[in-house]
Amino acid sequence: MRIPGRKRFGGIFSGDTAGFVFLFGFGFLFTAFFHVDAWRPAVYGSSRVDFPAVLGLLTLCCAVGWRGLLRRGFVWVEPAELTWLDFAPADRGRVVALRLLGAWTGVVAVTGYLASLLLAVGGAGLDQWRAAVAVVAATGVVAFATARRTSLRLDALGPLVLAVLGLAIAAFGLGPVTVQVVAAGVLVAALPMAFGGEPVARAGRAVLLAGWDGRVLRSVAVTFLDPMMLLPPSAPIGRLSLRRPTPLRLAWAGTLGRSRYAGAAVLVGFAVVVAHIAVPTVPGAVLIGIGAYVALTPFGGGLGELWRNPGRRRWLGSGNRELVLAHGLVLAGAGLLWAALLAVVTLAAGTSFAVTAWFAVPLSVLSILRTVTRGAIDYANPAFVDTPMGPMPANLVRQLFRGLDLLAFGLVLLSVIT
Q1: Which of 99, 184, 309, 330 is disulfide-compatible with 74, CB 3.0–4.6 A?
Q2: What does the pLDDT read at residue 91?
Q3: Are the C-beta atoms of residues 232 and 261 closer than 8 Å to each other?
Q4: Residues 417 and 357 sit within 8 Å (Cβ to Cβ)
């Protein structure tokens, strides 16, 4: 039974703004396939396309998509809607199940598009296409099988194992037949991973309302152009101490409380190395810099929370410089660990980065510190300026890209030096 008041396909064909954005985006992405000859030297250069590395990169993309689906951001129901669903023919389980299907379809569509574009640009043969379809299909099945139930402790190991397989495909130059065998193994592994836990369609009110709170937070952050609201909160680390909180201890506890993002940071490290092999035209400094920024930003959330809350800083009794130095020291330690992981994976893959490219890691740490110490967004003076794309609020853009501006300037400089 169709839920009253719900538009089919999310209303994308209703003629409103969402439908226009969808059709425009679909057309823009589809036109890329008409210019594959122009894209080929820009993506792969003049050298021969390394299709095992491309398939390995595709496997890493599937692992990242699987990891994102395991966040289960689709498990939510609006409080008012949750109330009337108790008296409606449609149950809340069906609402969550449909939302799971939509999120899963989006992940498969994105990975499928990336696979099609990379193979089309590289001029892949039928064997490579079969291997890519097998990888996307197998990971899609295992992702759905794990995301449809509640979270288990070993969930994060699945994407990590898939990332290791992607690295092995790229490093050892495995052929399309071997890749299809690997995909078949992933498909077989989906059966035991589907068991355990409860279906998310049976989630209780507390879980659904917690998911709704997170969705509202994300919506407000996008509406008010304030991504700092999306910095992840710290989880309890299970220790009780009566000692006076110092900035260094607080920074260390905040990093440990966000250790759940360590698996995602490892995935990013694998992706950086495989992308360096598959797409040789992208400078290594750019890959390392962007990867470090994405992997380490969640661990800067502790300083971001303090910076946006003057009451907590007064309670702590420490100056701003002391807080930045303490959190910067801990974040630099996390960056050093990530760089060590990247070095090990690079050696295992039989590739290398230029010496100057490794300076992108401390550059990313400084950029993250600059990002999380951003003040509250000032909407009083947007300072519109005329651009070829129309009027643009320059002051809002300056505030929005604080931190990223330092990263972009540094990566351009490192790329030139390299």
Answers
A1: 99
A2: 72
A3: yes
A4: no
Residue type, 141: V
Helix (H) or strand (E) holding 385: strand 384-387
Residue 130 belongs to some domain of the structure: yes
Q: Within 10 Å of residue 319's Cβ, how many Cβ atoms?
A: 11
DSSP class of residue 32 equals: G
Q: What is the DSSP pairing of strand 390-393 with strand 384-387?
A: antiparallel
Residue 236: is its pLDDT beyond 50?
A: yes
Count how many domains the chain has: 2
Count the helix, strand and coil residues of the chain and give each as a percent rounded to the nearest 5. 70, 0, 25
Q: Could you tell me which residues are beta bridge partners of residue 303?
A: none
CB distance 140 to 153 below 8 Å: no
| Final residue in a domain of this structure, among 223, 254, 286 | 223
Distances (CA, A) of 328 to 47, 67, 137, 176, 359: 41, 27, 42, 45, 16
Residue 408, Cα to own-chain centre: how many angstroms? 19
Strands, DSSP E only, in 224-306? none
From residue 40, alpha-carbon distances to 34, 251, 328 in Å are 12, 45, 41
Residue whose pair of structure tokens reads 């300037």 in the numeric block: 409
- Render pLDDT for 109-125 as a digit per residue (tens, 0 to 9): 999 999 999 999 999 99
Q: How many CB atoms lie within 10 A of CB 401?
A: 14
pTM attached to this predicted model: 0.90
**Whether residues 60 and 200 fall in one domain:** yes
Mean pLDDT of 186-206: 86
How far apart CA 127 and CA 310 sit, in angstroms, is 59
Supply the range of the domain harboring residue 381. Answer: 239-418
Asked whether residue 6 is domain-assigned, the answer is no
At residue 204, φ and ψ (nearest 5 deg) are -80, 180
Q: 252-261, 268-277, 386-395: lowest mean pLDDT where?
A: 386-395
Q: What pLDDT does residue 350 have?
A: 92
What is the average pLDDT value for the chain, to the nearest integer? 88
Residues 297 and 198 grouped into a single domain: no
